[in-house]
Amino acid sequence: MQTIASTVTVVDKTGETKEYVAPTILLHDFGLFVKNDSGLTLYNWDQVKEISWGEPNTIQQVWGLAIAQLATDLELDDDYLWDDEDDEDEIEESPKATKKEEPKEEKKADDENPYE
């Protein structure tokens, strides 16, 4: 997701805290790209301390994209997220006990003809 943040606070490779004001940022799985007048820098997520957004339109955009990404990550469908009906949970009853096969009685060879 690419946005313009109000401020971004990171820790650089020397361990110093650095704050960017109004940078263009790109959030990705492996880190945060920060683009400003001095260049483009990638920070790993463990180096990112804070990202803040102040503009209402940007806040709505970021919030909507974050929810959509969360739904995708959790593999939820639209029916799950937006279902306002009060559905009762249907619980399938599992058999309490499975029938055990009763041992067959041994038949005597003398009593019965197997070809009948």
**How would you sum up the major sheet?**
4 strands, antiparallel
Instruction: Outline the low-pLDDT stretches.
Output: none
Number of helical stretches of at least 4 residues:
2
**Could you say which overall geometry the principal axes of the C-alpha atoms support?**
elongated
Average pLDDT for all residues:
80
Number of strands: 7
Overall description:
With 116 residues, the chain is an alpha+beta fold. The protein has a domain of 75 residues: SH3 type barrels (Roll), CATH 2.30.30. Strands 1-4-5-6 form a four-stranded antiparallel β-sheet, with no helix packed on it. Strands 3-2-7 form a three-stranded antiparallel β-sheet, with no helix packed on it. The mean pLDDT is 80.
Provide a concise account of the structure shown.
The chain is of the alpha+beta class. Helix content is 21%, strand content 29%.
Key traits:
single chain, 116 residues, alpha+beta, SH3 type barrels, four-stranded antiparallel beta sheet, three-stranded antiparallel beta sheet, elongated
Helix-strand blueprint:
Layout: E1 2-4, E2 7-11, E3 17-21, E4 24-28, E5 31-36, E6 39-43, E7 48-52, H1 56-74, H2 78-82
Antiparallel strand pairs: 1-4, 2-3, 2-7, 4-5, 5-6
